[in-house]
């Protein structure tokens, strides 16, 4: 079977690498891919120069090349309706429809659905402009809040505020100055939940839900969860933050009612449902939903997965997940450390050659997944804010962390940086 992976980040490198290991995979095309996927040629991976938002171009390529399965990585093409377009052309695709992808594409839609499905989440109020939001803030007590752009903002449209002044500034940035573009056409102000964050991802065909081991992302840029929000500075899996009993509770009170409610709304959900959770004293509450594998959670998850991923995604498309045996996992934990360009998540310089990738790859139980890279004049260079996801397995979480940072130390480019504390939180939960 020929497979097409859509996207160019660390998640897509991990997907292509894992899918290419299937005995059923002939060629795995990645559109547009990066320098990392370019380096997987011996596995049968090939880059295709088509942007991930070129719906017509991707459908045309899939038809012309008789692609047996398209796996859509990022949220933007899902929200644009790429899966619908592929299916209308008689092609098989893994991922939610345009209507189902609104679960991530609109924070307002997501929060309304959580309320109607009786899924535990924080209280909220939605606004169509800055003026209404500012009036609301000035009329209520000064408490910590979270301000969110309604639309897609590459993981950066969420501002966690300690007080009213910070919330007013966030509203002006999102809805006044439109720092996140059209994503700020509407916004949400919600209760700030307290606790520890966890990511629970599940693969579903709309009837059966395969819940994956819980992971933990690190969103803020700085050590100790300080600084601005990013797309994710690292992740580890599994996290001891959720016990087996709590994971079962998340399935029962979060995932199942959401999938059922989407079906009732005639927006059946098929693909990856990613619940960003806050584990509070009252139990797990949903912060947001994503409709695809998380980046960087995908990297440690797929590093540990032993089951043939192509078989799983193929079964999901055919609505036969219930017939699969339980997924097999490497019992060892995995840690992914994101290396970023200087200035990220703000403005950053690109085009610097990256050294030491071969040295890092030579270390045992290490895989360097590329995100913001390209091959220019024979050299791998940084072209994005998040550049690499250095991922390692270990007998313990601290062992995996040590191995990941050993690999990080091998890699250099001008302005490279990373958080130094990825997975340290795990020690406090054990």
UniProtKB/TrEMBL annotation:
Names of the cofactor(s): Mg(2+); Mn(2+)
Pathway connected to this protein: Purine metabolism; IMP biosynthesis via de novo pathway; N(1)-(5-phospho-D-ribosyl)glycinamide from 5-phospho-alpha-D-ribose 1-diphosphate: step 2/2
Pfam families to which the protein is assigned, alphabetical: GARS_A, GARS_C, GARS_N
UniProt-listed Enzyme Commission number(s): 6.3.4.13
Ranges where the ATP-grasp domain occurs: 111-318
One example GO MF annotation: phosphoribosylamine-glycine ligase activity
Keyword Metal-binding listed: yes
The protein's enzyme class: ligase
Any single GO BP term: 'de novo' IMP biosynthetic process
Keywords for this protein: ATP-binding, Ligase, Manganese, Metal-binding, Nucleotide-binding, Purine biosynthesis
SMART domains: GARS_A, GARS_C
Gene3D superfamilies (UniProt xref): 3.40.50.20, ATP-grasp fold, A domain, ATP-grasp fold, B domain, Phosphoribosylglycinamide synthetase, C-terminal domain
Chain intervals for the UniProt region annotation (Disordered): 212-231
Reactions mediated catalytically: 5-phospho-beta-D-ribosylamine + glycine + ATP = N(1)-(5-phospho-beta-D-ribosyl)glycinamide + ADP + phosphate + H(+)
Family per similarity comment: Belongs to the GARS family.
Name used for this protein in its record: Phosphoribosylamine--glycine ligase
Designated gene of the protein: purD
């Amino acid at each position: 079977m020929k497979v097409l992976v859509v996207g160019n980040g660390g998640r897509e490198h991990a997907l292509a690498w894992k899918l290419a290991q299937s005995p059923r995979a002939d060629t795995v095309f990645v559109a547009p891919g990066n320098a990392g996927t370019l380096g997987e040629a011996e596995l049968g991976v090939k880059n295709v120069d088509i942007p991930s938002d070129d719906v017509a171009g991707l459908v045309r390529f899939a038809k012309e090349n008789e692609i047996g399965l398209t796996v859509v990585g990022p949220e933007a093409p899902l929200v644009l309706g790429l899966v619908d377009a592929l299916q209308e052309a008689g092609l098989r695709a893994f991922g939610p429809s345009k209507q189902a992808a609104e679960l991530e594409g609109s924070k307002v839609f997501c929060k309304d659905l959580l309320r109607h499905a009786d899924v535990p989440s924080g209280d909220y109020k939605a606004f169509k402009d800055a003026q209404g939001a500012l009036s609301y803030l000035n009329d209520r007590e000064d408490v910590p809040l979270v301000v969110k752009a309604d639309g897609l903002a590459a993981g950066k449209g969420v501002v966690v505020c300690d007080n009213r002044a910070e919330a007013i500034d966030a509203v002006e940035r999102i809805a006044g100055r439109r720092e996140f573009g059209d994503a700020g056409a509407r916004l949400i102000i919600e209760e700030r939940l307290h606790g520890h964050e966890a990511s629970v991802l599940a693969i579903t065909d709309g009837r059966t839900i395969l819940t994956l081991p819980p992971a933990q992302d690190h969103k803020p840029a700085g050590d100790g969860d300080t600084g601005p929000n990013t797309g994710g500075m690292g992740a580890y899996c599994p996290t001891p933050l959720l016990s087996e009993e709590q994971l079962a509770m998340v399935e029962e009170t979060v995932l199942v009612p959401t999938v059922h409610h989407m079906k009732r709304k005639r927006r059946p959900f098929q693909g990856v449902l990613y619940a960003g959770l806050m584990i509070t004293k009252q139990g797990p509450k949903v912060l947001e939903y994503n409709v695809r594998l998380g980046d960087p959670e995908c990297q440690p998850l797929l590093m540990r997965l032993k089951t043939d991923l192509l078989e799983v995604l193929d079964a999901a498309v055919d609505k036969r997940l219930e017939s699969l045996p339980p997924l097999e996992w490497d019992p060892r934990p995995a840690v992914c450390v994101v290396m970023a360009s200087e200035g990220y998540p703000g403005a950053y310089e690109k085009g610097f050659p990256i050294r030491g990738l071969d040295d890092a790859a030579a270390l045992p139980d290490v895989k360097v997944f590329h995100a913001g890279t390209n091959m220019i004049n024979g050299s791998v260079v940084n072209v994005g804010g998040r550049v690499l996801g250095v991922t390692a397995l270990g007998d313990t979480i601290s062992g995996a962390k040590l191995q990941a940072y050993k690999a990080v130390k091998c890699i250099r480019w001008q302005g490279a940086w990373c958080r130094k504390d990825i997975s340290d939180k795990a020690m406090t939960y054990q």
